[in-house]
Amino acid sequence: MADGTRLRALDDGLKVLQESHKQMQDSHAQMVVDQKELRADINLIATSMEDQKKTLNNLLVQMSHAIPKTTTGESEFWYNTSYQTSAQMTPFEVVYGRPPPTISRYVKDTSGNALVDAQLLQRDEVLSLLKTNLLKAQHRMKLAADKTRRDLQFQVGDWVYVKLQPYRQGSLRLQIHYKLGRRYFGPYPVLARVGPVAYKLALPDSAKIHNVFHVSLLRKCNGIPEQQITPLELVNHSSTMVLQPVAILDTRSIHRGEQLVEQFLAQWRGLPSEAATWEDKATLLASFPSVHLEDKVIVKEGVMLWIHYKIKTHP
């Protein structure tokens, strides 16, 4: 104490102090005294939860394996008796060399059990109804599809137009309104008939595509073919025309947002000047890096300056 007097704790007071320190929290608030025992309890709880999780997973696995496989036989029968277009036969024929067995119709009163006799007769009625419904559905689908079809046939030597997409790529559009663009090109003579719905045409050498087309892509040419020619330029593997610019007819500058964009009026090879389209200068030069522009300027006194760009390509 301040005056130098010493205090001595009695034995009873020590017992009270020891009991207080043995508790989870002593007389001082929020002070844990036995952290080892608390951590041991937490580890025990975590271990118990992990064991419960493993036990639950084991039970789920056992239950999944205990489910009877009632649909395996039906699935195998369906697969083995289904016709495969690649093998031109069923898997059953591939393995056993003979057609798969069919479900034979039941002959009435051949079974000694009346209940079995009734069930087999009911099965045959269901199968007959199923076949009838499938035939009706097939007939309805055929009628709906035939409404938009026409019986179109060509003979060897006939002149026909072929339907293609006259777009080189998305960045260069030949026409703003695609519906008004050309769809059919030609005409070209029919060389041969390939199967019931395909024909072989005599395409020009510049057309780098297969010369066999489905009948739906062809249209008969009426009149004199030489007077109705729509030229077909280079065509790639996707039946898309590969157009090449041959001349720049005019230039202009337009505002696109806050930028000033320079454009060329490009004339395309094989197309008239009326089919020329305005293209961005940067896009045109990036799409055709092998072409070069030469300025052809005609300067006369008292007239406006006319600039004509001519495109030259490497041979």
TrEMBL record:
Residues 157-221 form the Tf2-1-like SH3-like domain. Residues 246-288 form the Chromo domain. GO terms for molecular function: nucleic acid binding. It comes from the Eukaryota. InterPro entries: Chromo-like_dom_sf, Chromo_domain, RNaseH_sf, SH3_Tf2-1. Pfam families: Chromo, SH3_Tf2-1. PANTHER family: CHROMO DOMAIN-CONTAINING PROTEIN, RETROTRANSPOSON-LIKE PROTEIN. This is Chromo domain-containing protein. It comes from Mikania micrantha.
